[in-house]
From TrEMBL:
One of its GO terms (molecular function) is ATP binding. Residues 180-300 form the Mvd1 C-terminal domain. It comes from Salinibacillus kushneri. The lineage of its organism: Bacteria, Bacillati, Bacillota, Bacilli, Bacillales. Residues 7-164 form the Diphosphomevalonate decarboxylase-like N-terminal domain. Belongs to the diphosphomevalonate decarboxylase family. This is diphosphomevalonate decarboxylase. Keywords: ATP-binding, Lipid biosynthesis, Lipid metabolism, Lyase, Nucleotide-binding. GO terms for cellular component: cytosol. Its EC number is 4.1.1.33.
Length: 327
């Protein structure tokens, strides 16, 4: 009745932006990500019929009310799937600097999905695990696999065809992703709220949907031919389009801050100097930079000179879900 699982975060190169079903978390478009080795969550779940409530310990401390409610409602879905009623004791350690604005929901829900199903003795394949992780946080469905991963949006109303598939394992292409931590101001609006407003009001949302399939096809070709330049160009163009949809929303919003723009400018300058570096940005001010292993040091050196840069975390392609004996 006890299991421990480890899941890594992933960075979307083709973004998931917009839901067609909020409750089941069904996306409007396919997305494609790279799982990262440096950031991960390990979670232990133990179901115990003697527990009066679910209990959660995050990084050694009692979880907040809001976190507890979120995890309990997720476990209710897993319990319903398994046909059991027992409460659970959950301990989770996040090796992601969450307070710094690096998202941990992908690794968090992927680890919770894997540990809770294993603790209940359920034999779930990766496709099912991906669908279960999706219902915690959309991007979590991609963290089931290592390396490059595509989340197929599916077309059904019940979500039975909306899950991730591996594209290229992590050992096949040695790249670097530099996660740049910025001096940032107030917390931005959640991805959940940002997506909803964009889908409902953005003058540019139809343009986003129209472009994404072509970008996805080009990116898959770039991955299979290991064409780094094309991979980077499509990654950057896709991120810029996603952020443009927010500017066309009502009321308009952006996750960019002055530091975000300074990093984007630096990446452009590096390219003008002949270094292949490309940026991508999620629903927050921080920037991730894709580069080749031989250019990592120079990219780091140049970024460290920027006053807004508070830290740089170097990542490589990382693995999918792993089970462990202990937390
Ligand atoms: O899975 P969520 O609800 O945290 O949304 C993720 C949204 C983006 O990070 C902006 C894009 C993506 O595909 O990960």
């Amino acid at each position: 009745m006890k299991a421990v699982a480890k899941a890594h975060t992933n960075i979307a190169l083709i973004k998931y932006w917009g839901k067609r079903n909020d409750e089941l978390i069904l996306p409007m478009n396919n997305s494609l990500s790279l799982t990262l080795d440096h950031f991960y969550t390990t979670t232990e779940v133990q179901f115990d019929e003697r527990l009066a409530n679910d209990m959660f310990i995050f990084n050694g401390e009692q979880a907040s009310e809001a976190e507890s409610t979120k995890i309990s409602s997720y476990l209710n879905m897993v319990r319903q799937y398994a046909g059991v009623k027992r409460n659970a004791y959950v301990r989770s350690i996040n090796h992601v600097p969450t307070s710094a604005g690096f998202a941990s929901s992908a690794s968090g829900f992927a680890a919770l999905a894997a540990a809770s199903t294993k603790a209940l003795g359920l034999e779930v394949d990766k496709k099912t695990l991906s669908m279960l992780a999706r219902q915690g946080s959309g991007s979590a469905c991609r963290s089931v696999y290592g390396g490059f991963v595509e989340w197929e949006k599916g077309n059904s109303d019940d979500g039975s065809d909306s899950y991730a598939k591996p594209i290229l394992p992590e050992a096949e292409w040695d790249l670097r992703v530099l996660s740049v931590l910025l001096e940032s101001k107030a917390k931005p609006i959640s991805s959940r709220k940002g997506m909803k407003r964009t889908v409902e009001t953005s003058a540019f949302y139809s343009g986003w949907l129209k472009a994404v399939d072509q970008e996805l096809a080009e990116m898959k070709k770039a991955i299979h031919t290991k064409d780094f330049e094309r991979l980077g160009e499509v990654t950057e163009a896709n991120a810029l389009k996603m952020h443009a949809t927010m500017l066309g929303s009502q009321p308009p919003f952006t996750y960019w801050q002055s530091g975000t723009v300074s990093v984007m400018e630096e990446v452009q300058q590096l390219r003008e100097a002949g270094i292949q570096a490309y940026f991508t940005i999620d629903a927050g001010p921080n920037v991730k930079i894709l580069c080749l292993p031989e250019d990592e040091q120079i990219v780091r050196d140049e970024l460290e000179k920027l006053p807004a840069v508070k830290g740089i975390y170097g990542c490589r392609p990382g693995p999918g879900i792993e089970y462990q004996d202990y937390l």
